Amino acid sequence: MSIPVLALERVRKAFGSEVVLEDISITVPEHTATVFIGASGSGKSTLLRCINLLEQIDDGTIKLDGADITDPSVDPDEVRRKLGMVFQSFNLFPHMSVVENIILAPMRVHSKSRDEAIAEALELLDRFGLREKAEQYPDRLSGGQQQRVAIIRSLAVKPRLLLLDEITSALDPVLVNEVLSTVRDLKEHGMTMLLATHEMGFAKEVADEVCFLEHGRILEWGKPEEILENPKKPQTKEFLKRVHEAGRL
Amino acid sequence: MSQEVGRGSDHTSDSAPYSFGGQWSPSAIELERRLARKARSRKNALVATLSSILVLGTLAAIVVTSPGWKSLSDTFFKWAYGFEVLPKIILGFGANVFLTVIAATSVGIFGLILALVRTSRSPAITPFRILATIYVDIFRGIPMLLIILLVGFGIPALRLQGVTNNVFILGICAVIITYSAYVAEVIRSGILTVHPSQRAAARSLGLSNFQTLRYVVLPQALRRVTPPLLNDLVSLIKDTGLVSILGVTDAIRAAQIASSRSFNYTPYVMAAGIFLLVTIPLTRYTDRTLRKSIERQNAQGLA
Ligand SMILES: Nc1ncnc2c1ncn2[C@@H]1O[C@H](COP(=O)(O)OP(=O)(O)O)[C@@H](O)[C@H]1O
Ligand SMILES: [Mg+2]
């Protein structure tokens, strides 16, 4: 068996006395998508932020391509270069145009020339149908376009793994689909992904594995059909029922 | 140009239902409305002009016909004398401009450093952070005139080797010391208003702490605090006049000399006019920047 892109072993995270993640162990093989579902406050964002080393874990290990990234001697900037992350909102830098947003990291972090970075950025924008927005500033884009640009920006550094934290939660319902189809496209092209989402229909479609988080623990995990259609735990059933009532299944 | 008027005219019939036609020309109703609006705005302008003339004219008449007007205008508005000493005052104002340029540059650099130190979370910076906080608290809390006196007269009194006794330099130093504390706070508030997700987004792209500051946080912060910084610049220009107390011959000191020679206060009025010549355009410009920056932030809120 080949080494998984990401492997978490018994990860624990607390803020002060509040334990937010407990005993989290998952593996994410290459070209697969793992989706985290769970109520607000269950720890999804914290988990993704820990993987990105934006938060420091209190116990356990996180391995990226087999290398322990939680070792204190590891340079977090070095790790983050291999990861892409998109947040719920406020992703884009408002003082830079779309193309400037995209070329920032390739130029400053990966030492590409401006011309090369721009050429690659335009190619990506082209591929996702946003070519004509290249010179626009983020406040002139729709929320859906902003999130798609944020995804493109994280792709520009060719990450090993993409972390997407509820990237459609702040969007108008009519804009959700264009963002989801961008993610679908990435999945089809073999991008390894970790997502937190409330879009259950979408989870069922792209996920190779679904994890249900409650109070910082993985209560249930498995194939999307199992978890989303035949959950074993009463808490999972209850959660899915509530999401269903909110009209998102 | 077609002169067609009226709604539902036939050039929308060709293509898609949402085609807005090629050439829109205002309908009869719209033309009528425009005429009415124009008439109303002309009437408004007339009313504004008449009422201004009436109110200001009355005020002027009251002042000019009052019993004290003669001595008042002899004391403050003796233009012949005013223009006689104007060159000296303008020369003095050169010192204010020079002081402003040097001080503004140094304050910008020093204030930025103080703000960065105060907002840094790095443990190595901790002692400097404490020092910067104390510095800002102290120098924001003392009247600048006191600082000028302390630095301008106090430091020469120490008779230190290699330290200047030049009041001009000491005056600049006092202004820089004080204004850096103000500006540091303004910049710091700007840094704090940048959304934390912006930092997280930059760091997750692999940017270092410094790069995040340099390319993401500071540009946004400085843009946001440009209006208050411009306000501080206006205050700085005026406050450079305070160093006249050390004997620096600036516009105020030049006016003072001219005034004491003739027991006439017109030179002060001239000096005031020169300051206004610079500060009023700058104040208008600041207002415009502020309005634009508010518009921009509102636009961002919508997105
Ligand atoms: N920086 C922080 N300091 C203290 N508590 C936090 C912090 N970030 C998150 N938490 C807490 O951690 C828990 C999990 O939050 P989060 O990971 O955002 O959940 P989710 O993304 O699933 O909604 C919540 O109870 C939240 O209050
Ligand atoms: Mg969250």
Outline the structure in words.
Chain A is of the alpha/beta class and 249 residues long. Chain A folds into two domains: 1-82 and 161-249, Rossmann fold (3-Layer(aba) Sandwich), CATH 3.40.50.300; 92-159, no CATH class. Chain A contains nine helices and ten strands. Chain A has a six-stranded mixed sheet, with helices on both faces. In chain A, a hairpin with a 2-residue loop joins strand 9 and strand 10. Chain A is globular. The two termini of chain A are 35 Å apart. The model of chain A has no long low-confidence stretch (mean pLDDT 92). The radius of gyration of chain B is 29 Å and the shape is flat. Chain B is built from ten helices and no strands. Chain B has one domain (78-297): Orthogonal Bundle (MetI-like fold), CATH 1.10.3720.10. The two termini of chain B are 39 Å apart. In chain B, helix 4 (126-141) crosses helix 6 (167-193) and helix 8 (209-239) runs antiparallel to helix 10 (266-302). Helices cover 77% and strands 0% of the residues of chain B. Mean pLDDT of chain B is 88; it is low at 1-15. With 303 residues, chain B is mainly alpha-helical. Chain A binds chain B through residues 49, 52, 54, 77, 80-81, 83-85, 87, 89-95, 104-105, 108-110, 138-139, 141-143, 146, 150, 153-154, 157, 163, and chain B through 195, 197-198, 200-208, 211, 215-216, 219-220, 223, 296, 299-300, 302-303. The site of magnesium ion has 4 residues of chain A, from helix 1. Residues 15, 20, 38, 40-46 of chain A line the site of adenosine-5'-diphosphate.
Number of strands of chain A: 10
Globally, the shape of chain A reads globular
Determine the structural class of chain B based on helices, strands and strand pairing.
Answer: mainly alpha
Give the topology string of chain B: H per helix, E per strand.
HHHHHHHHHH
Please describe the topology of this protein:
The complex is a heterodimer of chains A (249) and B (303).
Chain A: E1 6-15, E2 18-28, E3 33-37, H1 44-51, E4 59-64, E5 67-68, H2 76-80, E6 83-86, H3 98-108, H4 114-127, H5 143-155, E7 161-165, H6 173-188, E8 193-196, H7 200-206, E9 209-214, E10 217-222, H8 224-229, H9 234-245
Parallel strand pairs in A: 3-8, 3-9, 6-7, 7-8
Antiparallel strand pairs in A: 1-2, 1-4, 4-5, 9-10
Helix pairs in contact in A: 3-4, 3-5, 5-6
Chain B: H1 28-65, H2 69-76, H3 79-119, H4 126-141, H5 144-158, H6 167-193, H7 196-204, H8 209-239, H9 251-262, H10 266-302
Helix pairs in contact in B: 3-4, 3-6, 3-8, 3-9, 3-10, 4-6, 5-6, 6-8, 7-8, 8-10, 9-10
Bound molecules: adenosine-5'-diphosphate (ADP) and magnesium ion.
Adenosine-5'-diphosphate (ADP) binds at residues 15, 20, 38, 40-46 of chain A.
